[in-house]
Amino acid sequence: MKDTKPIPYSRQYIEKDEIQEITKVLKSDWITQGPKIREFEDALCSYTGARYAVAVSSGTAALHIACLAAEISGGSEVISSPITFAASSNCVLYCGGRPVFADIETDTANIDPIEIERHITGMTKAIIPVHFAGHPAALERINAVAKKNNLIVIEDAAHALGATYQDTKIGSCRYSDMTVFSFHPVKSITTGEGGAVLTNSKELYRKLLMLRNHGITKDGPWSTPEAAEVKGPWYYEQQFLGFNYRITDIQCAMGIIQMKRLDSFIRRRREIATEYNKVFSGLSWLELPRERNEINSAWHLYPVRVNKKAAPRYKRKKVFNQLRQKGLLVQVHYIPVYLHPYYESLGYRKGICPKAEDFYEREISIPLHPSMKNKDVRYVIETVKGI
Ligand SMILES: Cc1ncc(COP(=O)(O)O)c(C=O)c1O
Question: How many angstroms is it from 314 CA to the middle of ligand 1?
């Protein structure tokens, strides 16, 4: 057992700047619905190149309003990846739609565009590719499939803020209608809880703003001075059913500082991943994550696979337990979503996506996060090599 604190697979990196900025907000007039929200949204837009950003209370909320803005409803089928957190497809269920799981590509564990095409029916409305572990999915090909079949693309980029695809930042929505981020503490940046939807469409932006706030708007034909005279200056309307998915100024103050540090976070993640790639490449019982040519991964995770041909002593559970015993808080990402009992109760069964199931049987996420010191990295390396 390690004599110091265990090393988690990921965690937040917060310094005094965040604490100072949060304190300023606490002493200000606005602790929610104030100026910090727009400032944070502007920072997301200028970093990614997207025209509009709507910051909300979580990545899950962001996925939910993105699906509603895409008009997913009863009868809609939405194709997504099984190797993800349940939120990526729960959002479809929230809207009454049916998630359809397409199998993954073996090198990246991202959804396979060929498998997407195989699952398209007359009911298909959208595709939600997930950029697993921070490595963007094959967006250009996915977008081509979507265009051909008149489908909406919502990128689940919860893992991928800071990643690039063909030299454009994830979040630019170059190959999608909307991109969703999460700011949970294990992600590229954090606001405690938080998320955002980015888009280049003014129409979607308007809907997203209202969905975040009960379906209410203050802007409308009544906001001209003459009309306001009639309706009254307080007037607002609820035009459809929305939610309270607002994020606070306290959180956004933290997010603004984190955005300034994002590139340094990603550089550190990349440095550690490069080191792991180098030293682990000699271990025959391990398969390492790959980064494709047109990609710079955000390295949200370092997902290794235990080699199938390795001796029985390298079975995943044994390796996992040994690493945990030695103080590495490794994790498994992910149980294919449709294998959860709730999804089974909806009729999904084992065998839908064999490559995803094989991936799940063998995956372990090794600690990788920007607050790791060099001595932590060395400890991880020695521990894994010592298995
Ligand atoms: C791929 C993916 N999508 C969506 C989410 C949901 O984000 P949040 O936890 O901010 O609601 C997560 C969270 O872990 C995730 O990993």
Answer: 30
